[in-house]
Design a protein that fits this description.
Rossmann fold, NAD+ binding
């Protein structure tokens, strides 16, 4: 007996109808790699909002708290590996169907999966930038500097939180030492866009240029509650570009979507592997 061919899914049909997809990904793409997401199925925060840019820059205690938690969280975040959702999207690009992938994630897992055309909308957590002179340092290198300056903290552990954070509560952070920039003594910050900080204009412009060349848009694992990502869906809708989304729960753009698939990212994209 010959098995009947497997029926294609609406998402597979959508991808098959378009030759140049603009893909936008969010935290849901990386949850199966062990990186927690920020929001629940209704798009609401699961925990306290992430650190604010203004607070980080102006308040030494905020910086100590951030880097203490990051010292613990980076140990596992830095070991995260791509999952089938990342590999499926890399295959989509390899097959010539993805013109550009714009990710809200800062984990670089798309690149680790072999994806070549990627815009890191919110930056890279694997780099640390001096806010004084602009010098950039690999995060692994800064991890060693943090550990040398705060050896006693290396014995602590805590549950993972999004983007390399850790739920390190009830600690006195006043003794935690954050090394300054070796070049100029300036404040060191992860090379990512914090809340209250603007995405660089050239990055937005480059992404918009690629979107203008696309014949469809695919959103994977994002509730689109943050405007920095939502604006690209708005732009696609204004150009009458069809939009499909894979997300567990509500998105800010539900009324703009041509197709919505409420499945885990790796399951919805399995047809690409």
């Amino acid at each position: 007996m010959v098995n009947a061919p497997r029926a294609s899914s609406p998402l597979q049909d959508f991808v098959g109808r378009h030759e140049k997809l603009f893909v936008l990904t969010g935290a849901g793409c990386s949850t199966n790699s062990g990186i927690p997401d920020y929001r629940d199925s209704n798009g609401d925060w699961k925990r306290t909002q992430p650190v604010n840019f203004q607070s980080f820059m102006s308040d030494e205690h905020t910086r100590r708290r951030y880097w203490a938690r990051s010292l613990i969280g980076w140990r596992r975040f830095g070991q995260a590996r791509p999952n089938d959702a990342h590999r499926a999207l890399a295959r989509l690009e390899a097959n010539g169907r993805c013109g550009m992938l714009l990710t809200q994630n800062v984990d670089r897992l798309h690149q680790s999966a072999g994806h070549r055309q990627v815009i890191d909308l919110h930056g890279r957590l694997d780099l640390v930038r001096c806010m004084g002179c602009g010098r950039k340092t690999p995060r692994d290198e800064f991890q060693h500097a943090l550990g040398r300056a705060n050896a006693a903290w290396l014995t602590l552990d805590a549950a993972d939180a999004p983007d390399g954070d850790a739920d390190l509560e009830h600690e006195d952070f006043s003794s935690f030492h954050v090394p300054p920039c070796e070049a100029c003594g300036g404040i060191l910050k992860p090379d990512v866009v914090f809340f209250g900080e603007n995405v660089p204009r050239d990055i937005v412009a480059t992404a918009q240029d690629h979107l203008a060349q696309a014949d469809a848009m695919l959103v994977v694992g994002s509730s689109l509650m943050v405007y920095s990502g939502f604006r690209f869906v708005q732009a696609a809708a204004q150009r009458n570009i069809p939009i499909a989304a894979v997300n567990l729960g509500r998105t800010r753009a539900d009324d703009l979507l041509t197709l919505k698939v409420e499945e885990r990212c790796e399951a919805a994209l399995a047809f690409l592997l």
